[in-house]
Each structure stands twice: as C-alpha cells, then as structure tokens.
C-alpha cells in the first residue's frame, strides 16, 4: 500500500512538473492554434510576433486576474469579414503592450476603399469584454481596417496610455481612404475610465453608444470627428438607448471635422441622454461644426425630422475653446425636437476664433448666446 501511495505521489509530481514546463508562469502564443491551451492554463501570457490567419479571431478568453502582454508585431491576413480580429475577455485582467517593443498592425490599407461601412466588409480590430477592475495599458494600434477598439458588456475597466495611429488612412488626392475608423467605441458598459491616450484617425476619437458612469480625460484626438455620443441603437430596448453620467475633460481635438457630437437616432425606440459634462475641451482647425447636437438622425445623417424619443437633459459644457477653419465651418449647431427634446443645459466659457458661419440653435442653453 505504501509503495502504491508513493507511486501516486510520484505521478502527481511528474504531472505538475510537466504542466509547469508546458504552461509555466510565462506562456507565449506564437500562432493562432496556441491560444486555446495557453489561455486555459496560464496566468501570465505573452502574444508574440503572430500573424493571424485570414478571417480568424485571436480569442483570448483569460483566467481571472491573468496578465496578457503583446510583444513584437501582431498582424492579420486579408479577408472581407466583420471580425473581431482580436477578442479579449475576462475579469480583473492586466493587459499591456511590451514597452517599446510591440505593434498591433491592422494593415488597413488592404481594406480601405473610401466607403467605410458601406463598402466591403472590414473587421473590428479589437473587442474587449472585461470586468472587475481590469486595466488595459500602453497598447499601440496602427491602421485599423475600420473601427479600432470596441469596449462592450464591460464594467469597472480602465484603458490608459493607448496610441492609435491611422494617419495613413487620411484622404489622398481629394478622395476618402479610411472611413468609419473610430478609435474607441463603447456600448453596454459602466464604470469606465479612458485616459492619457492619443488617437489619429478619420472618425470619432471616442464614440459612446450606450452606458453609464464613465470618465474620459487627457486625450489627444487628431483628425476625424472628435468626441461622439450617439444614442438609439434599438427599436425596443430603452437601456440600449441610454447614455448617462459621463464626464469628458481635458481633451484636445485638432485638425478635425467636428469637436463634439451629441446625436439621437429619431426612428429608434425610447431612451435618454442625461448628465453629460464636457470641460476644458481645446479644439483647433475645426472644418465643419465645433459642437453639433442633433435629434433628427436617420441612417447616420440629419433627416430634418426631429423626435423626442431620446431626450437630452443636463448636457453641460464649460471652458470650450478653439479655432474654426474657414468660411464653411460653424461653432454650434443645435437641432432639438420642439416637444421637450432638450432641457436643462448649461454652457459656459465658450471662446473661439476664426471665420465661420453663424451658429444655428433652435434651443439655447443657459449661459450661451447663439448669436
């Protein structure tokens, strides 16, 4: 009996040694087929110099409190599909890029057709679903085919020190190249912090479609359409059409079409946008509208027909300054539904220079003059 017990102990220790050698404290994913075993067995994972097969997702569903590090260059073979190319999911995660030694390259030029979502299918580069105080730090993305980072179904998450560079998708020879290349979009998420990051792109630097209790601060947004809150994704679910308790502070928006956009989709179901606070937003060379609020959006554009299905309340702004670029630009455009679509707004300390058209407001916030 004693010898049998010793044999069992020996086999158990051998299995432990083997497990540690195969899936030790530091486990590296070099190819797509490594991912399932490594994520199931490792607490400290490195994704290194991987080229992901066409139309496939690098699925990183991690153990609680796992650490994930991107190292070297991560690239993707071409396929027309919606992605995501990378999908990270877990609780209490620490996700980071190796300092000075990583790049997630979306190779967007293979997809860019100047049509964005209206053209060929293009993959979301990275989808994140995280909870429990997860932190995503020091991550460098380049040339996303379309949207870069989708934060979905998440709670208690911090994203900090990101660098998203899609400047190669800027218009060339008078034609659009990269389109709908949002830096971050956020949906169905709460208690989110996004800070200390840079986005160079052709669409929203940050776009919030649904969620609550978010703090967005210390961003540098170059090109694109600045900061966007756009509600109305559902025909039936009021929660999916709700954005509330959001602060956006200490942000620079440079050489962009827009600085701030707040929009509701007029043929959507019920919802609300409430308790939104913009403070210390610096803009330069805004080519279209610095602050644009519309309650008449259908299929992505202003329809001219407003609706109060998603009222906008407590939309507050303070210390919004910058420059307009040329005679076609405009400081403010407000199109609210006259049947109580907008209420209880306070806007203070607006200061802009540069030639532009007269602001248009069918609702005037307290503290602001539309003249």
Description:
It is a single chain. This protein is mostly beta strands. It has 2 helices and 24 strands. The chain has helices at residues 2-22, 35-41; strands at 27-29, 44-48, 51-52, 58-61, 67-76, 86-91, 94-105, 126-131, 134-142, 149-165, 184-200, 206-208, 211-222, 227-231, 242-254, 258-265, 272-286, 289-298, 301-302, 312-324, 330-335, 342-343, 346-353, 360-361. It has a single domain (45-361), classed as Pectate Lyase C-like (3 Solenoid), CATH 2.160.20.10. The longest helix is centred in the N-terminal third of the chain and has 21 residues, at 2-22. It starts with a helix and ends in a 10-residue tail after the last strand. The protein has a 24-stranded mixed β-sheet that branches. The relative contact order is 0.07.
Secondary-structure-derived class: mainly beta
* Total helical segments: 2
- CATH class identity: Mainly Beta
End-to-end separation in angstroms reads 94 Å
Order of helices and strands: HEHEEEEEEEEEEEEEEEEEEEEEEE
Number of domains: 1
Low-confidence stretches: 1-21
User: For the residues shown, what is the average pLDDT?
Assistant: 94
Structure summary, number of beta strands: 24
Cα gyration radius (Å): 23 Å
Overall outline: globular
What portion of the residues fall into strands of 2 or more residues? over 45%
* CATH architecture annotation name: 3 Solenoid
CATH-derived topology: Pectate Lyase C-like
Helix content: under 10%
CATH homologous superfamily label? Single-stranded right-handed beta-helix, Pectin lyase-like
How is the biggest beta sheet arranged? Answer: 24 strands, mixed
């Amino acid at each position: 009996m004693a010898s049998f017990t010793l044999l069992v102990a020996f086999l158990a220790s051998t299995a432990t040694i083997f497990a540690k050698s195969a899936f030790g404290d530091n486990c590296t994913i070099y190819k797509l087929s490594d991912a399932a075993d490594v994520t199931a067995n490792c607490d400290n994972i490195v994704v290194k110099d991987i080229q992901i097969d066409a139309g496939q997702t690098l699925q990183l569903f991690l153990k609680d409190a796992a650490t994930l590090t991107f190292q070297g260059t991560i690239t993707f073979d071409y396929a027309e599909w919606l992605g995501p190319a990378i999908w990270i999911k877990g609780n209490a995660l620490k996700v980071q890029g190796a300092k000075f030694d990583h790049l997630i390259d979306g190779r967007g030029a293979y997809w860019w057709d100047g049509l964005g979502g209206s053209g060929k299918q293009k993959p979301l580069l990275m989808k994140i679903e995280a909870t429990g105080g997860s932190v995503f730090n020091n991550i460098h993305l380049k040339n996303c085919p379309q949207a870069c980072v989708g934060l979905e179904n998440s709670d208690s998450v911090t994203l900090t020190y990101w660098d998203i560079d899609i400047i190669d998708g800027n218009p060339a020879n008078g034609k659009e190249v990269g389109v709908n290349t949002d830096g971050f979009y956020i949906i169905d998420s709460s208690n989110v912090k996004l800070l200390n990051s840079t986005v160079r792109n052709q669409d929203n630097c940050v776009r919030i479609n649904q969620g609550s209790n978010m703090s967005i601060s210390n961003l540098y947004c170059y090109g694109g359409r600045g900061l966007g809150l756009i509600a109305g994704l559902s025909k039936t679910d009021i929660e999916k059409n709700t954005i509330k308790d959001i602060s956006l502070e200490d942000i620079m928006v440079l050489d962009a079409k827009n600085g701030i956009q707040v929009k509701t989709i007029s043929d959507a179901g019920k919802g609300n946008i409430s308790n939104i606070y913009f403070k210390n937003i610096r803009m330069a060379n805004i080519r279209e509208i610095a602050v644009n609020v519309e309650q008449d959006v259908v299929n992505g554009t202003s329809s001219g027909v407003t609706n109060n299905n998603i009222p906008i309340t407590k939309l507050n702004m303070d210390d919004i300054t910058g420059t307009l670029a040329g005679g076609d630009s405009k400081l403010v455009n407000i199109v609210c539904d006259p049947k109580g679509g907008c209420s209880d707004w306070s806007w203070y300390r607006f200061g802009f220079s540069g030639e532009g058209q007269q602001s248009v407001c069918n609702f005037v916030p307290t503290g602001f003059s539309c003249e």
